[in-house]
From TrEMBL:
Pfam families on file: tRNA-synt_2 (PF00152), tRNA_anti-codon (PF01336)
Cofactor note as given: Binds 3 Mg(2+) ions per subunit.
Cofactor annotation: Mg(2+)
Molecular function GO labels: ATP binding; catalytic activity, acting on a protein; lysine-tRNA ligase activity; magnesium ion binding; transferase activity; tRNA binding
Protein name: Lysine--tRNA ligase
CDD domains: LysRS_core (cd00775), LysRS_N (cd04322)
Organism encoding this protein: Fructobacillus durionis
InterPro entries tied to this protein: Aa-tRNA-synt_II, aa-tRNA-synth_II, aa-tRNA-synth_II/BPL/LPL, Lys-tRNA-ligase_II, Lys-tRNA-ligase_II_N, Lys-tRNA-synth_II_C, NA-bd_OB-fold, NA-bd_OB_tRNA
Gene Ontology terms: cellular component: cytosol
Residues bound to Mg(2+) 1: 406, 413
Lineage of the species this protein comes from: Bacteria, Bacillati, Bacillota, Bacilli, Lactobacillales
HAMAP family, alphabetized: Lys_tRNA_synth_class2
Binding locations of Mg(2+) 2: 413
Localization of this protein: Cytoplasm
Length: 494
């Protein structure tokens, strides 16, 4: 109660200062357009290595603007820190220089936005500073800023009020700047590889392209239920049929699932498809994407994630799933076997399975239980069973497995890719098998997409496809252990 009263007192005082701006100084508390010619980071880059004498000998005038985040002094002299999108810089205001303009800084509260005209200088302590010649009030903050040491440490507040997190926590602000750089680097790499960026529907009449539960909504004009997309895959493949050959999309995906440090119901994915490629080509593409993304924030391609050093400059390892299981457990799934034999192996190793599972499901479960978390260095795991890969092409030498891979780093999956299934007859059979799984209790299994099957019947060239979770990639490259710290506004309970 005392804290709430103190907050109300501060808010009341700020409103009184707002009225004083209007009544005493005839200043609009919420300001107007302002032209600046410099950012804080640019000034540091240009002048940090200049001496006090050099700056005095050749005066440089600048115009900056930003939020006041610290204020020191009183009476005739005030120092303050001004923060813009690039960083922050100190200003030095003297009443003798500013005259009637001085009350703007004297009455300003932390959080207020101010425009500053002045001259570059250095203090006796050697700190780069703008000596103020004129001030412009730009916007009043009616609430006190969060205390950077205490007020924004609450996790709930950081996610629900991201704007406060960005104001108070520099590392959070920088992380989202890095996210933007990472995505820009990926786009630049894809363009260099002659991929075309496209957009596909978010609202769909049938959700497909992944094993996931969709969000359902209703279109009033058509009076039909529609689904938020769970993947971009099936529409991007339609474009391959249409002759675009190399396409990709970076966009939002929606899956009606639980939330944990690696999952948010709304997230960002990259999917790409290239005609005439197979999954080996896509491995090369994926490695290129990861190295380009990493270089945007780690030019050496060497980083540390949660205390473990990772070197992305080396070639990524490539291993078959069955070989990895055998190396880790001694269980050999290469010989053909019945479901009963696979179930016995599962029972012997305390691997649980569902009644509808076949041998391929059990192989995949062995991998997830015994191998996945052990893969620390970048590793392409290929050869997934056909039962867990309904959209991937069967391997020509062993049709029990598919030409699919996943990329694992630090025990987590970062990419999923295949030589795409382009046989409409086989694809229909896979869809039907998925539909049967759904009837048997797997509510994440896909249905039969007749329109996509029709598109395939017009002919799709051999194609390599890729999916990457952008949020997880950003987590890796910014040393973040929860997806909520790399999504500006994560999903929250009201």
């Amino acid at each position: 109660m005392a804290e709430e009263k103190a907050l109300n007192d501060q808010m009341r005082a700020r409103r009184q200062k707002m009225q004083a701006l209007q009544n005493d100084l005839q200043i609009d508390p919420f300001g107007h357009r302002f032209d600046r010619d410099s950012l804080a980071a640019d000034l540091h880059e240009k002048f940090d290595d200049k001496s006090q004498e050099e700056l005095e000998a050749t005066p440089v005038k600048v115009i900056i603007a930003g939020r006041m985040v610290a204020k020191r002094g009183a009476g005739k002299v005030i120092f303050a820190d001004i923060r813009d999108r690039s960083g922050q810089i100190q200003i030095y205001a003297r009443r003798d220089d500013l005259g009637d303009n001085y009350p703007i800084i004297k009455r300003a509260d932390l959080g207020d936005f101010i425009g500053i005209e002045g001259t570059m200088m250095k203090t006796e302590a050697g700190e780069l500073t703008v000596l103020v010649s004129h001030l412009t009030h730009l916007s009043k903050a009616l609430r006190p800023m969060p205390d950077k040491f205490h007020g924004i440490s609450d996790v709930e507040t950081r996610y629900r009020k991201r704007y406060l997190d960005l104001i108070a926590n520099k590392e959070s602000f920088v992380r989202f700047q890095q996210r933007s750089k990472i995505i820009s680097a990926i786009r630049a790499y894809m363009e260099k590889q002659d991929f075309m960026e496209v957009e596909t529907p978010i609202l769909q009449t049938q959700a497909g392209g992944a094993a996931a539960r969709p969000f359902v909504t209703h279109h009033n004009a058509l009076d039909i239920d529609m689904y938020m997309r769970i993947a971009t895959e099936l529409y991007l493949k339609r474009l391959i049929v249409g002759g675009m050959e190399r396409v990709y999309e970076i966009g939002r995906i929606f899956r009606n699932e639980g939330m944990d440090p690696k999952h948010n119901p709304e997230f960002t994915s990259l999917e790409s498809y290239a005609a005439y490629w197979d999954f080996h080509d896509v491995m090369d593409e994926t490695e290129g994407i990861f190295k380009a993304a990493a270089a945007a924030v780690h030019p050496s391609l060497k980083l540390n994630y949660q205390g473990t050093d990772i070197d992305l400059s080396k070639p990524f390892a490539r291993k078959h799933m069955v070989d990895l299981i055998k190396d880790r457990t001694g269980v050999d799934f290469w010989p053909e076997m019945t479901v009963e034999e696979a179930r016995k192996l599962a029972d012997d190793h305390k691997v649980k399975y569902e009644e509808y599972w076949t041998v391929g499901h059990i192989i995949n479960e062995f991998f997830e239980q015994f191998v996945e978390e052990t893969l620390k260095e970048p590793t392409f795991v290929y050869g997934h069973p056909v039962e867990v890969s309904p959209l991937a092409k069967k391997n020509a030498d062993d049709p029990r497995f598919t030409d699919r891979f996943e990329l694992f780093i630090m025990g987590s999956e970062y990419a999923n890719a295949f030589t795409e299934l382009n046989d409409p007859i086989d694809q229909r059979a896979r869809f039907e098998a998925q539909a049967a799984e759904r009837d048997n209790g797997n509510d994440e299994a896909e249905g039969i997409d007749e329109d996509f099957l029709e598109a395939l019947e017009y002919g799709m060239p051999p194609t390599g496809g890729l999916g990457i979770g952008i949020d997880r990639l950003v987590m890796l490259l910014t040393d973040t252990n929860t997806i909520r710290d790399v999504i500006l506004f994560p999903t929250m309970r009201p």
